[in-house]
UniProtKB/TrEMBL annotation:
<dbReference type="Pfam" id="PF07911">
    <property type="entry name" value="DUF1677"/>
</dbReference>
<protein>
    <submittedName>
        <fullName>Uncharacterized protein</fullName>
    </submittedName>
</protein>
<dbReference type="InterPro" id="IPR012876">
    <property type="entry name" value="DUF1677_pln"/>
</dbReference>
Length: 110
């Protein structure tokens, strides 16, 4: 199978049913998805694949701030995610995803 250039550089094929492992461009969470779904998500987010949680955050952010573009929203959210990960090295992303309330309680600023 020929892959098209660099567009799938974050992806790794995990089986032969066309299921790929995609990595969130914001929080680095990995999810297994079909290629069609990956393309759909990337088209919605200026060519960047984002996980379900980040996509919900972006949707909400855009609905509250209609003046900003999707690109600005993705870049802003990515920066927040990266900052969080740098500051909270001991925190695993799955704990943020599975239990956001506990995550915020445990990791509130000092
Ligand atoms: Zn994410």
């Amino acid at each position: 199978m020929v892959k098209s250039g660099k567009s799938f550089e974050l992806l790794r094929e995990v089986d032969h049913d066309g299921v790929l492992e995609a990595e969130c461009g914001c929080c680095r969470l990995k999810e297994k998805c079909t290629q069609d779904y990956i393309v759909e998500v990337k088209n919605l987010h200026v060519g960047i694949w984002v996980c379900g949680l980040c996509s919900e955050v972006l949707k909400e952010h855009l609905s509250k701030n209609p003046e900003i573009t999707m690109e600005e929203a993705v870049n802003g959210h990515r920066e927040i995610c990266h900052k969080l990960m740098r500051n909270l090295k001991s925190v695993t992303i799955p704990s943020l995803v599975t239990n956001p309330l506990a995550f915020h309680r445990e990791n509130r600023p000092l």
